Amino acid sequence: MREYLDFEKPIAELEDKLEKLAASSHARGGRQEDLNKLRARLHQLQAEIYAGLSAWQRTQVARHLQRPSTLDYIGRLCDSFIELHGDRAFADDHAIVGGLARFNGRPIVVIGHQKGKTLKERMYRNFGMPNPEGYRKALRLMRLAEKFGRPVLTFIDTPGAYPGIGAEERGQAEAIGRNLLVMASLQVPIVTVVIGEGGSGGALAIGVADRLLMLQHAVYSVISPEGCAAILWNDQSKATDAAEALNMTADDLQKLGITDQVIPEPLGGAHRDPMLSCDTVKKAIEAHLSELLELSTEDLLKRRYDKYRRIGVLAE
């Protein structure tokens, strides 16, 4: 069954009406003109609603339970995938998936957050919030990619790193910081796609890339709107205001020069047509990866360095 967000109530009502009309028309035969008019009205309504989404509404779309996940994209984009497990130090973290794959026939290493869709899956994946061993697993895979000269493709979709006591005791901050350091100087191309929610260092730990791509309704921020509201106003109900202030949408980040491309989504979000969304993402990745593979290692690292030095620079 399709899950509707709060602001999609008019769409839900119109789709329900359309389904009932289609069912009765099939039984009686005819009324195709009425169906076409209703479909056109539905399309117009969706376009109007999604053209005016607020930052908080985009955050809700980015978190949609039916939105394509990392494993969905890997399954659609890659010709083959061999998942590798464990950080060779403590455990395997199910919130991070990764391994060896082929993308358009080219060998790559792919890594990403995995939230899960059902409650059982989300609990198994810790709701997409990695522990330190998840980031150390990602680091092991990135070093493997560098050793064998394979480009790295990462997918970001997490509310943030897991903030539990055990995670802190096992060095959560160190694991994230080390990933940032290693990715900054990794001698192979890195392409990152924010496919849903990108939260704080938990996202950045696999997001230091040569090219950062974002889906149209994805968000990327130093903190979740709820967390920001709790800190600034001691009131999580102000998450709507926090979302606006954080400049966390794909359009905001493109204006700030942080993201390199905003990838359009099907009308109503990626979950409305996952296959089309995956195909669009595949074309974008191929275009950027092909350009990066033409660069020498020295030029690749210089451009990556310059990219991140430019972020946050203000000119009066």
Can you walk me through this structure?
Helix content is 50%, strand content 16%. By secondary structure, it is an alpha/beta fold. The protein folds into 2 domains: 6-52; 59-310, 2-enoyl-CoA Hydratase, Chain A, domain 1 (Alpha-Beta Complex), CATH 3.90.226.10. Strands 1, 2, 3, 4, 5, 6, 7 and 8 form an 8-stranded mixed beta sheet that branches. Helix 6 (132-148) runs parallel beside helix 8. The longest helix is centred in the N-terminal third of the chain and has 20 residues, at 9-28. The chain is globular, with a radius of gyration of 21 Å. The chain starts with 8 loop residues before the first helix and ends in a 6-residue tail after the last helix.
| Helix fraction bin | 40-55%
Helical/strand content category: alpha/beta
Percent range for β-strand residues: 15-25%
Gap between N and C termini? 52 Å
Radius of gyration: 21 Å
**Helical run tally:** 14
The low-confidence runs, each spanning 5 or more residues with pLDDT under 50, are none
Tags for this entry?
single chain, 316 residues, alpha/beta, 2-enoyl-CoA Hydratase, Chain A, domain 1, 2 domains, 14 helices, 16% strand
The gist of it:
With 316 residues, the chain is α/β, with parallel strands linked by helices.
